[in-house]
Design brief:
With 278 residues, the chain is mostly helical. It is built from 14 helices and no strands. Helix 8 runs antiparallel to helix 9. The chain is elongated, with a radius of gyration of 30 Å.
Length: 278
Amino acid sequence: RQEIPNVMSFDFYRAQFSALRLFPAGFWLVGPFGLLAALMSLRGGRGPLLLVGSLVLYALSLLPFFVCDRFRLPIVPILVMFAADGMVTFGETLRARRFHRAALLAAGIVVLAGLVSLPLAHFDLGRDHWMLAQAFLERGDPEKAIAEYRAVLAIHPDQASAWTDLGVVQARLGRYSDAEQSLRQATRISPGLGYGHAALADIHRFRGAIDAALAEYRLAVEADPSLVEAWLSLARLLRSDGETELARQTLLKGRSLNPGLTSFDTALREMGGEPQRP
């Protein structure tokens, strides 16, 4: 009865946004009535048999390869026609007071509804919560983004990247204690997560804890040499601490590991003189 998502889950977003709940009919309704009418039509003429055959053949062509919701879409119009016929048949049977037949039809609907509702697939909604968090951030609503990151972590408590994203947003809002806890959790789970160490270093630098910031920046660039801002921040802190030559060597090393980026040359010029090429 649920749509198996490819990238985003329609059921998830229908639960999040009321506008999508204006369309209540789904496979939970169309499936049982449509399947019942399709089975009943097997005793009919050539037309119904061709429709049933098209449903079966299309389904068989998908099963070995695709399970995502969008591939199920072409069968919906045919199934809707059968579902409408099933509902009309059931209603006419009741109006005709053929209660024994109506009871048999109702039993068939119940059985098929139970079949349709079997939990045959488990959906991981962590990705959907993460994508929603990113959307809230882009919209300028960090509080809702934090709530969505926490929803991700409720599903995947060991996802270091989600802890890091949560910590970055908390730091952006000035909640440095919460941010530090989130980022430390991220680095505990994944000690080689350079971005997490860099974000921790930014917090230490803001608080004036220079030694702690230097240590975290070093861990960051060691884990991920492509973190250009971490290299630059490390060099600036070294320079402000009186370690000008060490700051220069840091920039040269960062430039050698990230060739073609002018930001290192600019930083070297700020320290005086033309940057020397290795």
